[in-house]
Amino acid sequence: MKSCRDCRTFPALSSPICQAVPATTSPGVSDFQDPAQGLERILQSEQALQNAEQTPQKTDQLQSRTQRISQPPSFRELDIGLCRLDGHDRRFLVSSGIGFDAAVCHEAESSRIKPFLNHLRLGKLTYLGIALKNIFKMSKGNVVIRVDHGEEISFSGILFAAAMNLPFEGGGFAFCPNADPSDGMIDICLIESMPVLRILRLLPTAFRGAHVRYTDVVHLYRCRSITLTSVQPLTVHTDGEPHGTGCSFTAEITGEKLRMI
Fold first, then answer.
1. What is d(CA 43, CA 1) in angstroms, rounded to the nearest whole number?
2. pLDDT at 52
3. Residue 234 near residue 162, CB atoms below 8 Å
4. Low-confidence residues of the chain, pLDDT below 50?
């Protein structure tokens, strides 16, 4: 037991309560000759207590972060498509197409104004101008398609046909909103020729995939391969890159996979 210093200084204030203070009581300001020293010790004790309380929480956070870092990354295997144009093969990951969209890609590659507009960060205006021009001069020759070696389907003319491995292609068009790059299938969006004014109304809806409701001119297929034959040469692209011009176009899933994180 220890006594209170104030009781030793003023015996009249001595009481059983003061005399009953146990020796293990945390130090107070009055336990030191210098009150400032006592206050400093108290603050140090409180800080040590706070650090002790926070340590388990910090340890849990560190362990959680370490576990997340040490976990192996998740991979996804994506299908690889193959485009065959008059016997010339090229692989693609996003899409391959024939007709209107490919013609725009071809002309944009050789456009002399494109570098200037790209410098101004207005490169999309190149595609917009070329697209509007091509809408008015698209050919309407007969086209025959065969899906998975099935029966032939004839069209009097098409705007384009896109073989999609992913839902979207360049410019943000969701031509095949339900395409899955890991299902071992390829999705086809074929749009028939139509009056220019209707094209101008329909194409913007493809940004959100709403074009699929126009079932009289928009045709969707899911298959492993599609062959398209045209009576006159049509331009073809693979992943937005020009692939040439021809009359016989095939798109299929190769069975190969690209492993990506």
1. 25
2. 53
3. no
4. 1-3, 5-26, 28-32
